[in-house]
Specification:
It is a multi-pass membrane protein. The protein is mainly α. It has helices at residues 2-19, 22-30, 35-56, 68-95, 98-104, 108-120, 126-143, 156-175, 183-204, 213-225, 229-240, 244-248, 254-266, 272-296. The two termini are 27 Å apart.
């Protein structure tokens, strides 16, 4: 048991460290490639990575056992993630500083609690109101750089896109809450659909999908470490851990590691408002987690 827990921490920390590089990878890749081709090649890369993982695990034959109903569900989920979610998120990164986009993105858990009211019939409790207030206050502090009274944003569209991406991500998880398919198989189907959707969207919009070398390398990196291997590492950590909480709490290291990498690789000065806003967002997320635990007892 102790050996498995050690493996769980190793897998969890590896996933967190890799996810911490993603904001920087988005910004660097966007210098060479537009959102559509970046997402297209990242999705294709993820498909090949997940196929390779299933092959190594000796599970590639499970694809032939999928039913039409299971495959059809991915037409919906693949439209939400990766297609809409990453297309909106990447455009947000294109308009905002990396530190702002990545911090605002952490409000997705709070957004999900709001959407669960009409979609899952759940009710908000006292602590959840506090969580929502803390999370969205943090997002406003970041987007206005602490100037809440002036309420001036450098990129209102970028802020709207970053917040919109949290809605799409939350919808993806809510619609998939009753999905019994193996997560790796489902993710593979989602990315297959997402690559097709992205390619079709680019062609219909007259956007060239021809990449240059630096942009393609960035897309491959994102496909491997944001959308492919890292997901499997995280799922392995959760499976090996004695309790989910022992590993899931590691995720709170990611935004701070990400800011460190953003500062040294992108040269962004980390604003005090970003740190303050991120603190509010994480406080809101932890409050939400505590409220959920109370509701289950």
């Amino acid at each position: 048991m102790q050996k498995n827990q050690k493996k769980a921490y190793i897998c969890g920390l590896a996933a967190v460290c890799l996810w911490s590089t993603v904001a920087t990878a988005f910004k660097l890749s966007l210098r060479h490639l537009g959102p559509e081709p970046l997402l297209f090649y990242a999705s294709l890369t993820s498909v090949f990575v997940l196929l390779l993982i299933l092959t190594i695990q000796g599970r590639i034959g499970e694809l032939s056992g999928l039913t039409l109903k299971e495959a059809r569900f991915s037409l919906l989920l693949g439209g939400l993630n990766p297609f809409l979610y990453y297309l909106v998120l990447i455009r947000a990164y294109d308009l905002l500083r990396a530190q702002e986009a990545q911090a605002i993105n952490y409000t997705w858990a709070i957004t999900m609690s709001l959407l669960a009211i009409p979609l899952l019939g759940q009710r908000l409790r006292g602590l959840q109101f506090v969580a929502i207030g803390l999370g969205y206050l943090g997002a406003l502090i970041i987007s206005t750089r602490g100037n809440l009274l002036g309420f001036e944003m450098e990129s209102p569209l970028g802020f709207a896109l970053a917040m919109g991406s949290t809605v799409i991500w939350a919808l993806f998880w809510i619609f998939g809450v009753k999905d019994a398919m193996d997560p790796t198989l489902r993710l593979l189907l989602n990315f297959c659909c997402g690559a097709v959707y992205t390619g079709a969207w680019a062609i219909l919009s007259g956007i060239s999908l021809i990449p240059n070398a630096p942009g393609l390398l960035g897309a491959i990196y994102l496909g491997v470490f944001e959308m492919g291997v890292t997901f499997v590492l995280w799922m392995s950590a959760l499976r090996l851990s004695r309790t989910t909480a022992q590993v899931s709490n590691l995720i709170y290291l990611a935004p701070f590691l990400s800011l460190f990498i953003i500062h040294f690789l992108l040269g962004e000065t980390i604003h005090a408002a970003t740190l303050a806003g991120l603190g509010f967002i994480l406080a809101g997320t932890l409050t939400q987690k505590f409220a959920d635990a109370q509701a289950m007892t």
